[in-house]
Write a structure and sequence with these properties.
Blueprint: H1 4-17, E1 19-22, H2 28-47, E2 62-64, H3 76-86, H4 89-99, E3 103-112, E4 118-119, H5 134-141, E5 149-155, E6 159-164, H6 175-182, H7 186-189, E7 197-201, E8 206-209, E9 215-217, E10 219-220, E11 226-234, H8 260-281
């Protein structure tokens, strides 16, 4: 976290543009270790995706839930290292600066290089994957809830594959944008948007997006990609969805080995979402 002037600038840019960047948040040694860990988890995902009970797709572009402890049965120290990095105030503190209140984890994702896919990516707002009705999407975009979450992108290799349309988090679609979002074909939904910003990141750099705004990622099999996305939400508006569904966090010993600060960070997450996890699947909390 930076000085007061930098914090103020971050928050102002976030509120008006919908995204911010912060260079060199994590050092090279930490980034390299995280990359090794994520590569190992990815290989396990490609053998078997726990959510789908089948091999993960090499062209899936991303895998969810890096924070499943089952990926680290043989490497518990790697799990602790990764989780302490994700809970570091250098990361979560950026989100609390721009949102102006305490935040909790909502989910983790790894974006990786596809094996054969070549796609410029479709423009979208994340709400369209949660609510089918265009009217309901519009209602959400214009609500306070639309400004209570953030997606932090931590680059582990150099990347410029993310694009964002500044200011789109504060307004509804133009006719052109709505048509592009609803296009079924890749070509129709992936045309360039005037005013869009391509975000360049070196390893250890952070970019944060309000996913209510229009954005896209690009996916090319000859462009290396290894980016961790940590999704946060405010404690006052915890979002219940596929990002936040993580009942394995209730397993005994989930927080074992973590430092005090990290345990406290994840304990708030667990306490906030336990009722949702239990209600959704009838999970019985153990321990």
């Amino acid at each position: 976290m930076g000085c007061l002037a930098e914090m103020t600038a971050h928050r102002e840019h976030w509120e008006t543009e919908g995204y911010i960047t912060a260079p060199g948040v994590l050092d090279a040694e930490r980034v390299e270790n995280l990359r090794r860990i994520c590569d190992d988890v990815l290989q396990q995902f490609l053998v078997c995706c726990p959510e789908k009970k089948r091999p993960g797709g090499p062209d899936d572009r991303c895998m969810r839930n890096l924070h499943r402890r089952s990926y680290f049965a043989d490497r518990p120290d790697d799990f602790v290292f990764m989780m302490e990095a994700f809970a570091d105030p250098e990361l979560s503190g950026i989100i609390e600066e721009i949102l102006g209140e305490k935040v909790i984890l909502r989910g983790t994702t790894l974006w990786f290089t596809p094996k054969t896919l070549r796609s410029p990516g479709n423009w979208h707002r994340d709400i369209q994957y949660m609510v089918d009705s265009v009217d309901e999407q519009k209602k959400f975009v214009e609500s306070r809830a639309a400004q209570t979450g953030a997606q932090l992108m931590l680059a582990l290799v150099p990347t410029d594959t993310n694009e964002y349309l500044p200011g789109s988090h504060l307004r509804w679609d133009t006719d052109e944008e709505l048509q592009m979002r609803l296009e079924d074909d890749v070509v129709g939904g992936s045309r360039d948007l005037a005013g869009a910003v391509r975000v360049n990141q070196a390893p250890g750099d952070v970019a944060v997006f309000n996913a209510t705004g229009l954005h896209r990622g690009q996916y090319y099999n000859d462009v290396p990609r290894c980016t961790v996305m940590i999704t946060y939400t405010t404690e006052t508006v915890p979002v219940e969805d596929y990002f936040s569904y993580a009942p394995w966090c209730l397993e005994p010993g989930y927080l074992d080995g973590m430092n005090e600060q990290s345990r406290a960070f994840y304990q708030r997450y667990i306490e906030c979402y336990t009722e949702f996890w239990v209600r959704k699947e009838g999970v019985v909390r153990l321990g």
